[in-house]
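Structure tokens please, single chain.
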Amino acid sequence: MQAWERFADFQQWKTPSSKVCAVSWGNPLQGLQAHIEKFRNSPVMHSEVKDEWKPILFRQGHRIAFPDPTKVIQRPRMKFKH
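Here you go.
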């Protein structure tokens, strides 16, 4: 909640701006475990997908391994083929 209080309605930007920060609960997912479950079996975790496109986890500022999938990861479908 400290982050919520700090960033809600924040507008003291380093550069001039009329933008005001809005804070809200995540929808439809809320919390770390919900996001892990969403992505652990997702095609984005397939071995053919570049690492920089995959979600990552940190603990105390250090990258940690993403939990293993619970089923076979399908190849991603490409929307555009060149």
